[in-house]
Design goal:
458 residues, alpha+beta, 2 domains, 10-stranded mixed beta sheet
């Protein structure tokens, strides 16, 4: 019976390449898919491209391909990725240069265009798209017209179809923009098994294979809440691999690496970002895992079963990034005794200074690292605990409409070492103002999107 093996090579932009390199060199793979994009990653990449027309994609991927391209080609492992981000052309140019450097004549680079709709907003409005925010009112804004002139990027989440076309065209590597993470894995499975477009149960299996692999190490014992102490060799963490046949679905990992593939580690990733287990919506299929099973099937092997699918949605999600002001955050540490009280007093001083300068932040966030910066309102604020605190770090952050207003906080932090309560120390250097990108998620008709596959032969 035919078995297709796909590895999850990257979980996010900035992830370690070690597991992907190990996987290519030591595992028996047919494909490896690498996910680099998140909700606001494309907005960051769009800003990079504005500053440098050659930027705007995940340059990490090029570094990875310099390490694995030749090995993958010689072993017949096809690579699929959404590393193209906001500048697929530049990413393809760099891959071409790597292939030429490696002497890989005939290397085929597939790439997908059409997910970037930034310049098509007016056409979509004219076509009747209303851009209703699916999260409702955000940041006090409910009307799309209020952000229309602030848009940084608009990218549609798309499914497997154009990626599949590249693979069917013989691509050794396929580069996309905002393909959904799991569709990167579904496309190779469709190519290998020839599932029908309405074979919803098999499409759902393919999507969940991608879902279990798309976050890299998180699916193999990384970020493992249930038993992180039980994960062997976390310094050599391997990433998960899916093995599928027409009637089986197993998660495993490469030989001779760290990590843990067990029922609990897979369950954590299985439910990650799934709001409704009976209706997990993707562009390719609506997945039902409400009756799914995960069963230990050997050492570092988990069998997945009873995954079902329903028809795909009529619309696609469009994520629009828009300019939402500026932010700056400052840090100031305080030592025992009365560390928390001192930090609170310093925060009060800073807020009074900002008020006297006429600064009116849209948002203010004051938290205390070591006490409530992570747990916020549910942090343990027992008076005895606070009294014994060895140290605490005041973190004060503001968001304003203008860069100039935001910058007024920066010079007020360091002077509090001598001009405020005792025991303060300043570290980390002066803060820097950063642009804030807001997210406006909406839905658009599928026929508004024209995705195109291409093949470039080196």
């Amino acid at each position: 019976m035919k078995t297709v093996k796909i590895g999850g090579g990257q979980g996010f932009w900035g992830d370690s390449p070690d597991a992907a390199i190990h996987m290519i060199r030591h595992a028996d793979l047919d494909y490896m898919a690498c996910d680099y994009l998140a909700e606001l990653t494309l907005s960051i990449m769009a800003r990079q491209r504005l500053k440098n027309p050659a930027a705007g994609y995940a340059r990490d991927f090029i570094g990875l391909m310099k390490e694995i391209m030749a090995d993958a080609k010689h072993k017949g492992v096809k690579i699929v990725t959404n590393a193209g981000g906001m500048n697929i052309a530049s990413c393809v140019d760099q891959l071409k240069a790597v292939a030429e450097e490696k002497g890989l004549g005939g290397y085929r680079i597939g790439y997908v265009t059409g997910d970037d709709l930034t310049d098509k907003i007016d056409d979509l409005i004219a076509a009747g798209v209303d851009f209703t925010n699916i999260d409702g009112e955000v940041d006090g804004i409910a009307d799309f017209s209020e952000i229309r002139d602030k848009i940084v990027n608009a990218n549609v989440y798309f499914g497997h179809e154009p990626t599949l076309a590249c693979i069917e065209g013989g691509a050794d590597v396929t580069v996309t923009g905002r393909s959904t993470d799991s569709a990167l894995f579904l496309a190779p499975l469709l190519h290998e098994f020839g599932w029908a477009k309405d074979d919803w149960d098999n499409l759902a299996r393919g999507i969940m294979a991608g879902h279990l692999l798309e976050c890299g190490g998180q699916g193999a014992g990384g970020n493992y809440d249930y038993g992180w102490r039980d994960v062997p060799r976390m310094d050599e963490l391997g990433f998960p691999i899916a093995e599928l046949t027409d009637d089986s679905f197993v998660i495993t990992k490469a030989p001779d690496c760290g990590g843990l593939i067990c029922e609990q580690s897979c369950k954590e990733q299985f439910l990650y970002e799934v709001h409704d287990p009976a209706n997990y919506i993707t562009p390719d299929v609506t997945v039902d895992i409400s009756r799914a099973t995960l069963t230990q099937a050997g050492d570092n092997r988990v069998a997945v079963g009873n995954v079902h699918g329903k028809p795909k949605p009529d619309k696609l999600k469009l994520s629009i990034g828009y300019h939402a002001g500026y932010k700056v955050a400052g840090l100031l540490s305080f030592a025992w005794p009365d560390a928390y009280e001192k930090a609170q007093y310093a925060a009060d001083i800073l807020m009074k200074k900002l008020a006297r300068m006429g600064v009116k932040p849209r948002d203010v966030n004051i938290s205390y690292i070591g006490l409530n910066a992570l747990h916020l309102g549910v942090a343990d604020m027992d008076p005895e605990l606070i009294k014994r605190l060895n140290e605490v770090v005041l973190r004060i952050a503001i968001r304003t409409d203008t860069k100039e207003e935001c910058a007024k906080l920066i010079p007020e932090i360091a002077p509090l070492q001598l001009n405020g309560p005792p025991g303060a120390s300043f570290f980390g250097g002066r803060s820097h103002v950063q642009e804030v990108i807001g997210l406006w998620p909406t839905l658009i008709p599928r026929d508004c999107v024209k995705l195109e596959p291409h093949i470039l032969t080196v």
